[in-house]
TrEMBL record:
Pfam families cross-referenced by the UniProt entry: DUF72
Gene3D superfamilies registered for this protein in UniProt: Protein of unknown function UPF0759
UniProt source species: Flagellimonas ochracea
InterPro entries: DUF72, UPF0759_sf
Domain of life, per lineage: Bacteria
Name the record gives this protein: DUF72 domain-containing protein
Amino acid sequence: MKFGKVEHPELIDFTIPKDHPDTQLVLAKQREEGDTSVYVGCAKWNRQDLKNFYPRGTKDELVYYSSQFNCIELNASFYRIFPAEQYQKWCDKTPEGFKFFPKMTNEVSHLRRLNDKVYGTVDRYLEVTSLLKDKLGTIFLQMHSNFGPKNWDRVVRFVEYWPKEFPLAMEFRHTDWFNDEKVAQELYHLLQENQMANVLVDTAGRRDLMHMRLTNNEAFIRYVGANHASDYSRLDDWVDRLSAWQNKGLRNIHFFVHQNLELESPFLSAYFIEKLNNILGISLKIPSTLNNPNDSQTLF
């Protein structure tokens, strides 16, 4: 993921901002009983991107990937709607408890930009995506950076149309969604009233997307490492923040690890999962890093 990439990440202040004042109110109001559900994964499973991750002789990358991680952020579904049998194959190949978090097709978000012609496409997308059955996690819709608040009516219509049996997270990138307080509050309340997650994006060049405003009992976080030593300390900070949110009532954590150049995302994820296990009192499997030629904490 090159979104938010900068030439000199060492100059960026990666401090996680304080929570939005309403985040604690949301967690208190929507507090859920039971254990914390945590899913951590990468964006892709293909060998070309996840270098040094697959053992020599691996025949099926998804089968191996899903033996190491409990989820995948399915970016492939952004570029096209796959045939129904493909979703069924993905479902059959992966173990019980594994989840896909697919991105909504760009025909809806980028090409037609939530206009009145998207709804047939939405129905077609959901028809095949639902074949993932209980392995379907939260779907997320990522809007183009130039999709601004002037399109507010389109957002409202889309949110009202969306079938609520499918969990949805929405990612807005135009800076005016967050820098205009009135606009931001209207957006947050719309998502909150419809039980939709407000995606957090942690990337170097767009710190405004770290609005720290949760809108339901789900933290949907897309973390973009900068291929820099700071990638690890940034993950440490996220462990601390998620622990604080857990103590305030958060029960659903969905965290996806990217890098500007997808070289070491599985090893960043393994580091992060081990830290989460210790702090949150959970027991996610730590992905094997035996194929990494370097020590994951000294890659840079």
